[in-house]
Structures are given as C-alpha cells and as structure tokens.
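for the record, two folds in this file. i put them one after another cuz i was lazy. first one right below, seq on top, structure tokens after. the second one comes after a little note so u can tell where it starts
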Amino acid sequence: MPGRETDLIKPALVGGAVAGIISSIPFLHCLCCLWVLAGGLLAVYLVSKQAAGQSSGFTQGDGLLTGALAGVFGAIISILIKTPLTGYYLNWNKRFLESLARFADEMPPGWENWTEISPQGWSPFTFFLNLLLTSVIFAFLGAIGGLIGFSLFKPSTGAKNETQTAQNPGDSQPGL
C-alpha cells in the first residue's frame, strides 16, 4: 500500500509536537522520557482512531513506525526550541548544583567546574550532533510508546468466549 505510510505522518507529527514542546518546558523537561513515550502513545491512539473508520488493518508495525516517527519529530521540535534557550538551561543547572551543594555534606572533587560552564555560542557541529543523538534516543522511546499504544488501542479481533468449560467433564479435577 503506497499511501499507508502517509496516513501515519499526521498523527506522528501531532504526537511529536506534544512530546517536543512539553519536553522543552523548563522543569518538565526532567521527565523527558515520559513525554516522548506519551507522544508515541498519542500518535498510535490517533492512528487507531483513523484506522477504525477505514477497512485497512492496524498492525504492530504501524504502531512501532508511528511511535518512532513521533519520537523523531519530537526530537526536531525539542532541539529547535531548546537551542535558543541554552543559556537559560545552563543557569538553571548552575542554580540547581549550587542549591544541592548547600545540602550535601561532601561533593565530589571538581564539581565547582560544572557551575562555571557558560554558553560558548552556536556551533553547527554541536547542533547536528545533538539533533542526531536526540533523534535516536527519542525514536527508540517513541517506538516503545508506540508498542504500548498498540497494545492498548489495537482493534478487537472479535467476540471471545468468556466462559471456559472442560472438553470432557471427566477430565476436570473434583474439588477438595
């Protein structure tokens, strides 16, 4: 089916946008992995709703692909939002380490060097390396979210027999 992959792009964009935006918000970005899983899950939910109205099936591979695409889109959006905010994130991390030092009895040697880090400016190499690594990690986490979403939202395969009876009444064990 040549058009099937294009049906996965819009839900993946929506799930990736949610994951990328929420994982870029200060303080909420600490739960970045959770947001990427949720973005993959949301994308698969949207695909399952879309597939319910069509005759085409919704497979586990569709869930994996949609979740991974949502992760890649989320990584792109997250990097585009975080790049201009790098100085803010470094100041936030510096304040966190300084407040941690007040409550910690012994800090490892050289920890002061972490508080002296300042932004060195924008570098294309650093940007693309960060984008590549983030895309790989987000795609993996999005695919896991896609699998979770598929297991939650997969189409039912028909009515199941709720009561189970023994084939031969003599095969069952008598109660104690």
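(here's the note) second protein begins now
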Amino acid sequence: MPVLFALTCQAKNNIIPGFCRNSYRLKKINNPFAFARDLRVLEGRLEVAGLERLHDLLAETGGTVFWHLEGERGQRGESLLRLTVSGGLLLACQRCLGATPFDLDIDSLLALVPAGAELSQEELEDDSRDFLPVEHDLDVAELVEDEILLALPVAPRHEKCGLPGVADDGGRVHPFAGLAGLKGKLN
C-alpha cells in the first residue's frame, strides 16, 4: 500500500517554490530602473490572506486587492513608478474590535533612487513624490503591502461606535449601582 503525505501550504512552499497561492511572493522586477525607463506596465492581484504583515490589523483575512504598476519618466529624466492599489479590507475597530470596512484607493508616485544615494534638501522637501531606494531587485508584493500599510488609518473605528463602559443613551454604566440599594438593608 502506498504511503500518502499531506503537505501544508507552508511545507509545499519550502519544498516546491511557487506551488501554492502565495507564489506571487516570487514576482520581482530584476531591474526597476529599466522597467521605468522602458515605460513597462505590470498588474495583478494579491490575496489578503497572503499579506501577513496586515493580519494583526484585520478583522478578517479574506478578500483580494488589485494593483497596477507603471513605469514613467520624470521631467528631468528620472525613473518613476506609479503604483495604484484598490480593493477592500475589513479592519478591526479599535473600540469594539468588530469588523469595519476600509476601501483602498492608493495612487503613489515613487521616484527610484540607488540605495545609499544622497538626496538634496530640495528633493526631500518635494511632496509630489516619495523616494524608493533600490539596490537590486524590487519585490512587487512587498511594495504593494508597504503602500497598503502606509495608507491604513492609525486607529480604525466605526463612525458610530460606542466606547466600552458607556450606555447607548450616553450615560455612564455604573457596575456597582445595584449594590447601592443593599447598603442600608443589611443592618
């Protein structure tokens, strides 16, 4: 009788890279400067379950985000990447810990610079773009996840979410109010 083994997705990824749905982690741009210079376009989708750095902020890890990466040239010939990300996430409300929907609508212009390059004060003060230091390869999934993390609110919460310990009518809940009635009856 043959012996069958069941491998978890993590074990499959360790043995056979790219076997599971997390294979998008392997998508890299070998030369981001050439990608921008040649005005190339790359797009795709990522499963939210595969974006592990987001998990602590989410109420649910289901769903998909869609991304579009396009190379551009700046006015002075600099290499730029325009990244757009769309989709929906269910964030954990910081007041009630319930799920609160958050729509992603990210449009980032990133100027590519060699890692360790010195930037002038004028460049640092330019708010029209962000700088992305690149050494070799550019991991697209990691870039998308970074931009999502930067776009999330610091403390997500529902529009009309009550604070813990406050009654719906706005009055304060007093947990020992029932004991006040017993105060004089025991003697």
